[in-house]
Design goal:
CATH architecture of the largest domain: Alpha-Beta Complex
Structural class: alpha+beta
Pfam families: Myotub-related
Radius of gyration: 26 Å
CATH topology of the largest domain: Protein-Tyrosine Phosphatase, Chain A
Protein name: Myotubularin-related protein 9-like
Number of helices: 20
CATH class of the largest domain: Alpha Beta
Distance between the termini: 34 Å
Largest sheet: 8 strands, antiparallel
Number of domains: 2
Region (Disordered): 631-657
Family: Belongs to the protein-tyrosine phosphatase family. Non-receptor class myotubularin subfamily.
Domain Myotubularin phosphatase: 231-606
Length: 657
């Protein structure tokens, strides 16, 4: 699923378009997707689509608000009284005879239109003799970088002018715009005329850089098949707490952060020890970076151990103490029990943090806790690793030795290995050592969430179902305060120097893909879901990944004015697209191999726009057919063949372990 392409048609469904495959009835590809202009009143005057007979008609959408392409853009119910001059950013709205091309795909020629949120290429594959028109759309928010090149310059002076510079034009010129998208695809637009080329490039750059959350497309997207309120309350924390409360009475649901004054990045309600009152929580919050005091992340029903998460303590150079924080952490341990603090920083980084007001829990104040340092990269080093990997993948001229050297030097697989190893450590402490675990780094919003979420996928079979996995994302990433707006502002191709961007969420998805490859029967969802989540985290028609925390989402009224991605994914006709046909419930903990030969490059993501996946898609379709044939031996046979196709011992089937 590609963001801004097929997730956003009139009925919210993805069209069945294969990567790199030319379909009958016109050039269809997953780079752009056919759209229905009924859903997009912002579109300038273009030819209305009549669908060829070979392409099934999609249900028409209905629009609840009018969004003009010029003049003041009124957001109607999405944000009453707020306007913005999008027209000032669009220097040229329409250009004829634009050629769209992409590696491995046939070129498409048509009329290019720019709207406030989309690029639209309207093409007539059969020419004027055939009225069927194909409209290809791209969400402008998906554009990560714009590169332009102008060529074939020639000057001319129109008749009747005095030769002034204003009357001098460029003739016989053309330009090429390269669009590097956040979902890693690369598109080229050949535009006749230098002025038009420069105007189009400038318009795309300006529109893709609009940083106001409430000006983004989710506030304008209104699919016919969904209601605004759907999906936002599928995974309430109260329901999750009731599952824990049915097994133990040692925890309670606290509303201490109801007004976000205790911690601006926590949700209004959190799960805390029952023996600790709210006043103690407030005092403990003042001792933690950003107010992120220790809260429950996961309760392990097998033995009753728990995993907590927080931010670093503010001990500072004078080793300050907080009795309330010590009491909070002491409450979760019985007399004689021990706990482990997994710090996702190096010992040196933690020591340096103490000089700037941060630090670690001193042994003298937390005698039952043992600190383990497992450094995980975040911020600029991780972003640069991501950028180097994508650059290497796009270099199709590199020799094998050169490619392997670049793959190793970018260190992305090392980051995947480190994340899986740390998550396995947390899971091992709980499952095998039967010890309580506290995970934190510095701020507690990045690598901390990476470890706690991965550990739960390893430990808990319910988190390996489709519904359970989406609930985990809601609880451990979105509500937990991962700053998606900052971390996913740019992808791997931006020419701007990385500021606060970092692909932590992508790293998590990559680790989950490694688990799905090593345990092909144990995850109910498929790779397709992981790709969809990656795309929507960086650019989406849905409001699920907007903003940095729950407080910001409340201020922007995201849940009142945008649609939830979960609502779309949970539609019966959509849900089946993301299921793993080989899934079989596995109640056991899955322990992945983290040996270097077991960690592989996620080709389905990093190569999906570079080479066709037609054969792989056909293979999975055959697997689906065999499984649905209800042959009792089919699924087992398919599973064994799939396991043998995986190259390392860690990929053996669960039944062989």
């Amino acid at each position: 699923m590609k963001v801004g392409d097929a997730e956003d048609n009139s009925n919210g469904q993805e069209l069945s378009l294969s990567r790199g495959v030319q379909r009958s009835g016109g050039h269809y590809c997953a780079l752009f997707a056919p759209r229905d202009p009924c859903l997009h009143p912002e579109v300038p005057t273009c030819t209305r689509r009549s669908v060829p007979a070979t392409q099934p008609e999609q249900p028409r959408g209905s629009c609840r608000q009018q969004v003009p392409v010029a003049g003041k853009l009124h957001r109607g119910s999405a944000a009453t009284g707020t306007t913005m001059e999008f027209s000032e950013l669009i220097k040229t709205a329409t250009v004829e005879s634009v050629l769209l091309s992409c590696a491995g795909l046939p070129a498409v020629k048509g009329t290019l239109c720019i709207t406030s949120h989309h690029l639209l290429l309207s093409s007539c594959p059969g020419g004027d003799a055939q009225p069927g028109t194909v409209e290809l759309w791209l969400l402008i928010r998906n554009v990560d970088a714009v590169e332009k090149r102008v060529q074939n310059l020639g000057w001319y002076q129109p008749p009747g002018t005095n030769g002034s510079p204003l009357d001098t034009r460029l003739a016989g010129s053309s330009g090429t715009i390269t669009l590097r998208c956040k979902d890693l695809k690369v598109l080229q637009l050949e535009i006749p005329g230098m002025e038009e080329c420069l105007n189009i490039a400038s318009s795309i750059e300006a529109l893709s850089s609009v940083d106001s959350v409430m000006m983004m497309y989710p506030f304008f997207y209104r699919p016919q098949s969904l209601r605004l309120e759907e999906g936002w309350h599928l995974f309430p924390l109260e329901r999750h707490f009731q599952q824990i409360a049915s097994q133990t009475s040692q925890w309670r649901l606290s509303h201490v952060n109801q007004d976000f004054t205790t911690c601006p990045t926590y949700p209004p309600s959190v799960i805390v020890p029952a023996a600790v009152d709210d006043d103690t929580l407030r005092k403990a919050a003042r001792f933690r970076h950003g107010g992120r005091f220790p809260i429950l992340s996961y309760y392990h029903p097998k033995n009753g151990t728990v995993m907590l998460r927080s931010s670093q303590p503010l001990t500072g150079p004078n080793r300050k103490r907080c009795r309330e924080d010590e009491m909070l952490l002491g409450t979760v341990l019985d007399k004689g029990e021990r706990g482990f603090i997994i710090d996702t920083r190096s010992a040196q980084a933690a020591k340096q943090a103490r000089m700037t007001g941060g630090g670690t829990e001193p042994k003298s104040s937390y005698p039952q806790w043992r600190r383990l340092h497992r450094p995980l990269e975040r911020g600029r080093p991780l972003q640069e690793s991501f950028m180097k990997l994508v650059e290497a993948c796009n270099d199709t001229s590199a020799t094998m030795d050169r490619w392997l050297s670049r793959l190793e030097s970018c260190r992305w697989l090392s980051h995947v290995k480190a994340a899986l190893s740390t998550a396995c450590l947390a899971a091992q402490c709980m499952d095998r050592e039967e010890a309580t675990v506290l995970v934190h780094g510095a701020e507690g919003t990045d690598t901390t969430l990476l470890v706690t979420a991965l550990a739960q996928v390893i430990l808990d079979p319910s988190c390996r179902t489709l519904r359970g996995f989406l609930g985990l994302l809601e609880r451990e990433w979105i509500e937990a305060g991962h700053p998606f707006h900052l971390r996913c502002a740019r992808s791997a191709s931006s020419h701007a120097r990385p500021k606060q961007e970092a692909p932590l969420f992508l790293l998590f998805l990559d680790c989950v893909w490694q688990l799905s490859r090593q345990f092909p029967f144990s995850l109910e969802f498929s790779e397709r879901l992981l790709l969809t989540l990656f795309d929507n985290a960086y650019a989406s028609a849905y409001g699920t990944f907007l903003c940095n925390n729950e407080k910001e989402r409340c201020l922007c009224k995201v849940k009142e004015n945008t649609h939830s991605l979960w609502a779309w994914l949970n539609q019966p006709e959509e849900r089946t697209k993301y299921l793993n046909p080989l899934y079989s419930h596995n109640p056991l903990v899955i322990w992945p191999s983290v040996e270097p030969q077991s960690i592989q490059l996620w080709q389905g993501l990093f190569f999906r726009w570079i080479r066709s996946s037609q054969h792989l898609d056909e293979a999975w379709a055959e697997i689906q057919r065999l499984v649905e044939s209800k042959d009792p031996h089919a699924k087992e046979g398919v599973g064994k063949r799939l396991s043998r196709s995986l190259s390392d011992p860690a990929a053996q089937t669960e039944n062989e372990r």
